[in-house]
């Protein structure tokens, strides 16, 4: 028997303490390590990235700010505070970032870019700096600047944490000097962008999306009449969130993205009826966050309607946020495969 709920009926509340306590890798990356990462032998940059991160992990916690005396009279540390993993979606950047987190001493934090900006919104900038400046390592996954305010905010945050002796590590699909391109008038914020870039040594990771290496094409969407039988076959004895896609999209507008992790808490699978192409940018960007949280928790998907490669408009898939949308399609496709592992009897 399947326990059925609706995401559109959930309105989670998250305290500041819960936000702070949630900065660790998701269950999907809860047990990963450098040893469990499998570099593609055709892509030597992948093995090189592992070696670089292992060396970086060895230095985490070995030297901190040292107080005012060291800042005034100590020998200047010429090394950069952070390491930045640049590469396409699906090459294992998050796996490696989480491996670094696991291999490093604490206190430490691991979160997505949007989770850090949400933390600042909840705590205030100064309290966020105070909370994180005692950490040995801060890991920022999916580093992307979507607006000028985020550019200034993260530039200041990274600079102050680096000055406090915190080691930084980030992943992104965009080189740090190119953050913001195509999204806003990045040329007007070159100083802030350059401050960000100056904090990191860049490690390039080449390769194809591992979620599709040697795997079949994404499964075709189901018919509405097939959803029930497939749901019973795939999720027997589990809890499933079943929603009309348009209703879910409307509901997400009233739930802050910082709460999407709690929104899907306790959900073993999702079923969406009548998936349709999203045509508004703000709606699409919210949905990308939900896709990321579903992928983090490895929540299988069953869906009817348009296939996931038609979820965003062609204009979106070629615009300033195209890498976000490609990542979302890639992850949703992987979860759709998982959702059709069992055929109805």
Automatic annotation (TrEMBL):
GO molecular function: ATP binding; ATP hydrolysis activity
NCBIfam families from the UniProt entry: ZapE
CC annotations in GO: cytoplasm
Protein keywords: ATP-binding, Cell cycle, Cell division, Nucleotide-binding
Coiled coil: none
GO terms under biological process: cell division
UniProt cross-references to SUPFAM superfamilies, sorted A to Z: P-loop containing nucleoside triphosphate hydrolases (SSF52540)
The gene coding this protein: zapE
Record InterPro entries: ATPase_AFG1-like, P-loop_NTPase
Source lineage: Bacteria, Bacillati, Actinomycetota, Actinomycetes, Micrococcales
Name of the molecule in the record: AFG1 family ATPase
